[in-house]
Amino acid sequence: MTYKIKFGTDGWRGKIAEDYTFANLRRCTQGFANYLKTTYSPEQVQQGVVVGGDKRFGAEDFTTAVAEVLAGNDIPVHFCGAGTPTPVISYSVVARKAIAAINITASHNPPADNGFKVRDQFGGAIAPAGLKQIEAAIPDSLADVLRLRFDDAVARGSVQLFDPKPAYIAQLDRLIDLQPIRDAGLTVVVDDMWGNGAGWLSELLAGGSTKVIEIHAERNPIFPEMQRPEPIPPNVDAGLAAGVANNADCVCIMDGDADRCGFGDEHGEFVNQLRVFGLLVMYLLDVRGERGPIVKTLSTTSMLEKLGERFGVPVYQTGVGFKYIAPKMMEVDALIGGEESGGYAFHGHVPERDGILANLFLLDLLVQTGLKPTQLLDRLFDMVGGPHYYDRIDTRLPSNEFKAEAKARLDAVQPETIGGLRCTDKITVDGYKFVLEDGGWLLVRFSGTEPLIRVYCETTHGDKVPAILADGMKMAGLTIDS
After folding, report:
1. What's the pLDDT tens digit per position in 171-183?
2. CB-CB contact of 114 with 105 (8 Å)
3. For residue 76, is the peptide bond before it cis, meaning its omega torsion is within 30 degrees of 0?
4. Strands 270-271 and 261-264, sheet pairing
5. What is the 3-state secondary structure (H, E, C) of 331-390?
6. Could you read off the pLDDT of 134-147 as tens digits, one per residue?
7. Tens digit of each residue's pLDDT (9 = 90 or more) over 34-53
């Protein structure tokens, strides 16, 4: 039976050599080529597709395979190759006036995985309807895949090699003044998580009194000292420890493809990604004085509604994933869009997560206010009525039948209280979200990229977090130990 390629929360991902094979990758690329040729005019298709990828195992060969299929379909290729950060690939679509991008990355997945992300002419994620069209256009047989050998494609000009860095750095210069950060005398530890972000912050902040110390900056696709290159504990523990050892003012963290941002304070304590989202919104609204809508997934912080009310800007909630966020950002001309997993996109840029720019904005927040990270959190909490507490439990699906069974249970449940707090609403837009009396929430949701069920919560009652999560696990038919 032909392997069925399905796009999840952000593209197609699979285990290398099991389902992520050259044959399936070429089929997937042919499907995208078919989609482009039926969706856009021949003149638009000739604007070409940007192709790049991360530093995972086989990245060079996988990106080359993609380029060969596009070239075989007479679609020009702008090729920046492996080792290019995801936000740089996305911005290159705009800078090169291309029609789309293919990015070979599994982002923060485990080492054995790789992936296939697609982006539109704005550098943003393609909406769910478009992804369905791509899936439907993927051929079952390699006999229907067109290819032109890479060297021949380069010789013919069908594949153009380019350096994406200058255009992206010029874009950063339009979005932020880096000189005050360079001259601030900060000590910044940067954890690159063995990925695509290596060297970027050091280069951007060189030439002043600020000192940048990078760790995990080499290429190592098995990702030592972490379970996976996802910027949350325990994966960030080594980076946070390096912050303490170097008496750093903060720790800036990027995931494997540099589209997500993690952050540590001056004591080497992790600042969770919901609080980072709050800090970034506070920075844009309060420090920079900008105004515009906020777009958030239903799995992220309720602090944003409170900030939106305080500063008079609307807040829009979407399903999980940038395939929902990016179109909504374009629709409402958003100031910022983001999600629970640490991905944030910004106005005037591309509607795509950018871990490089997010970390630069956080550093600028420190510099412009003269406050330490813990003091900035106090300032944020003063604006939103006190601290907000968050946690998440990820559980591998116990069996093939479990997902249907859990959905049936969650469809039926109507709890009066969760973790001792009154439940005021149930939202089933993407998973099962239960709104709590304090404005907090519990969300039970199946991952769109891995065989996982996630149980998350946020509340103003820090002592109730374990009980809220335990109730969420119970409603899904799980126990904490499962």
Report:
1. 999 999 999 999 9
2. yes
3. no
4. antiparallel
5. HHCCCEEECCCCEEEECCCCCCCCHHHHHHHHHHHHHHHCCCHHHHHHHHHHHHCCCCEE
6. 999 999 999 999 99
7. 999 999 999 999 999 999 99
Instruction: Give the C-alpha separation, 386 to 374, whole Å.
Output: 14
d(CA 296, CA 18): 35
CA 230 to chain CA centroid, nearest Å: 10
pLDDT per position as a tens digit, 352-388:
999 999 999 999 999 999 999 999 999 999 999 999 9
Residues comprising the chain, all counted = 482
Neighbours of 244 (CB within 10 A): 15
The pLDDT of residue 9 is 75
Asked if residue 68 lies in contact with residue 148, where contact means CB atoms within 8 angstroms, the answer is yes
Nearest Cα to Cα of residue 191 among 141, 257, 252, 125: 252
Decide: 338 and 315 in contact? Cβ < 8 Å: no
CB 417 within 8 A of CB 436: no
The whole-angstrom separation of Cα 268 and Cα 280 is: 19
Question: Going from the N-terminus, what domains does the chain have, and what CATH number goes with each?
Answer: 12-164 (3.40.120.10), 176-384 (3.40.120.10), 389-476 (3.30.310.50)
**Could you tell me the two tokens for 372?**
């330490």
Give me the average pLDDT of each 10-residue run along the chain (482 residues): 86 95 98 98 98 96 98 98 97 98 95 96 93 96 97 98 98 98 98 98 98 98 96 97 98 97 98 98 98 96 97 96 93 97 96 97 98 98 97 91 93 95 94 95 89 94 97 91 62
State the pTM of this model: 0.94
150: left (phi over 0), alpha (psi -120 to 50) or beta: alpha
Structure-block tokens of residue 454: 């996630």
What does residue 270 show for φ and ψ, rounded to 5 degrees?
-70, 135
337 contacts 329 by C-beta, under 8 angstroms? yes
For residues 103 and 119, the answer to whether their CB atoms sit within 8 Å is: yes
Give the separation between CA 103 and CA 51, rounded to whole angstroms: 6
Helix or strand holding residue 255 (H, E): none
Convert the pLDDT of each residue in 70-92 to its tens digit.
999 999 999 999 999 999 999 99
Structure tokens, 254? 């990027």
